[in-house]
Structures are given as structure tokens and as C-alpha cells.
């Protein structure tokens, strides 16, 4: 009877827990805060990465904190993996059409977000979530330029991007260009349209 009673207490304690398990994080590129339902801003930072002219550069974009903490360091410049700030690079035909203001050569912010929902999905080619998913943000698919030496990755830039205050002009570094659909190969056209800028959406569930 004593053993049975102990087991019952263990099971009852386990099943009585009603807290929310899980959660997830993601980066909102081009914005300084997170605004989806129930989502918190973990930190706001600076979009950054390897320079677009560097061979062997890291492909990924980083969201650097505004409050760096240092361990041991050598302040002299070394070869290795230099990290630069990120800029928006949109040519003349795109400048006001997409964002209602000029942002080319402006420095890009970012925010790391914590959602209470456990699954995160970025869908390229859509600006709305599928049924059953919660919208975190929507925007445009971006990456580095096709002619650059450094490889890059596709990320989802917010449809209403902000710029960092007091940015330093056209200094390049890690860069954002629109991703476009290209027909004439294996991409199915329709539904895709040659030359059209691709949308994206970040969703949670």
C-alpha cells in the first residue's frame, strides 16, 4: 500500500503541472523589436557578417549584440574571420517602390525574438502563414549579390525595415539584395514570374 501511494503521488505531481512547455527563438532582420502576439524581444542588435569581397567568408548573417562582452583578446588586426556591419543594397528601380523611403546603403538592425510557440517556419515565396500558424513577420527574401566572391544565405528581411541611427554611409560589408525568380531553367513558371522579387514569411506554431 505504501509503495502504491508513493507512485500515485509521483504520477499526480507529474500530471498536475499546467505550465507551458517549449518555445522558440528566431531573428527578425531589419527591425529593432519583436511584435507578434506573445513574442518577446530578447535583444536588439546589429546585422553583420563577412565582407562580400572575401573568399572563404562565412555565409551566414549574424545579429550582433549592442553590449559585447570580451574575454582575452589581441587588439591588432589578424587574418581569420573578420566581421563587418550589414547594409541594404537596392538599386534605383527598387528604392522607394518597396519601402516608401530610401534605405539603400543604410545600416541594418536586427532583433532576436522569443516566441511561446515551439515551432518556427520561414516560407520563401509567401507573405502569409498557412492555416494553423501564427504570423511573426513578413517581408522579402534577400541574400548577397550573384557576382560577389563571398557566398551568402537567404534570409527574410522585414517588409518595413528600419535603419540604424547615425549610420556611416556606403561602407558595404555584409550586404542585402533582393532575391528574384529566374525562369528558363527548372523553376516552375508559372506560378513563379521571371524577375519578380520573392516574398517571405516567418510563422510559429
Detailed description of the structure:
This protein is 7% helix and 30% strand. The chain has one helix spanning 2-16; strands at 24-29, 40-49, 62-65, 84-88, 109-115, 120-124, 134-143, 155-158, 174-178, 199-204. The protein has 205 residues and is mostly beta strands. The chain is built from 1 helix and 10 strands. Strands 1, 2, 3, 4, 5, 6, 7, 8, 9 and 10 form a 10-stranded mixed β-sheet that branches. It has one domain (22-65, 82-204). It is globular.
Secondary structure blueprint with pairings:
Layout: H1 2-16, E1 24-29, E2 40-49, E3 62-65, E4 84-88, E5 109-115, E6 120-124, E7 134-143, E8 155-158, E9 174-178, E10 199-204
Keywords: Signal
InterPro entries: Ca-dependent_lectin
Signal peptide: 1-22
Shape: globular
- Our measurement of the CA-to-CA distance between the termini, rounded to an integer number of angstroms, reads 44 Å
Which structural class do you get from the secondary structure elements?
A: mainly beta
Radius of gyration: 22 Å
Write down how many β-strands occur, each being a DSSP E stretch of 2 or more residues: 10
How much of the polypeptide forms β-strand, as a percent range? 25-35%
Amino acid at each position: 500500500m505504501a509503495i502504491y501511494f508513493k507512485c500515485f503521488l509521483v504520477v499526480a505531481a507529474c500530471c498536475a503541472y499546467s505550465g507551458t512547455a517549449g518555445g522558440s527563438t528566431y531573428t527578425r532582420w531589419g527591425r529593432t523589436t519583436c511584435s507578434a502576439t506573445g513574442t518577446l524581444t530578447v535583444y536588439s542588435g546589429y546585422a553583420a557578417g563577412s565582407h562580400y569581397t572575401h573568399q572563404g567568408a562565412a555565409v551566414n548573417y549574424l545579429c550582433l549584440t549592442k553590449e559585447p562582452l570580451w574575454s582575452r583578446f589581441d587588439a591588432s588586426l589578424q587574418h581569420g574571420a573578420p566581421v563587418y556591419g550589414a547594409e541594404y543594397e537596392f538599386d534605383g528601380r527598387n528604392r522607394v517602390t518597396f519601402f516608401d523611403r530610401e534605405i539603400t546603403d543604410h545600416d541594418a538592425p536586427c532583433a532576436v525574438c522569443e516566441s511561446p510557440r515551439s515551432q518556427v517556419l520561414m516560407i520563401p515565396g509567401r507573405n502569409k502563414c498557412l492555416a494553423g500558424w501564427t504570423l511573426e513577420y513578413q517581408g522579402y527574401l534577400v541574400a548577397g549579390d550573384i557576382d560577389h566572391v563571398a557566398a551568402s544565405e537567404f534570409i527574410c528581411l522585414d517588409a518595413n525595415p528600419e535603419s540604424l541611427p547615425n549610420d556611416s554611409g556606403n561602407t558595404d560589408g555584409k550586404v542585402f539584395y533582393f532575391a528574384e525568380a529566374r525562369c528558363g531553367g527548372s523553376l516552375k513558371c508559372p506560378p513563379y514570374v521571371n524577375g519578380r522579387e520573392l516574398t517571405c514569411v516567418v510563422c510559429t506554431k
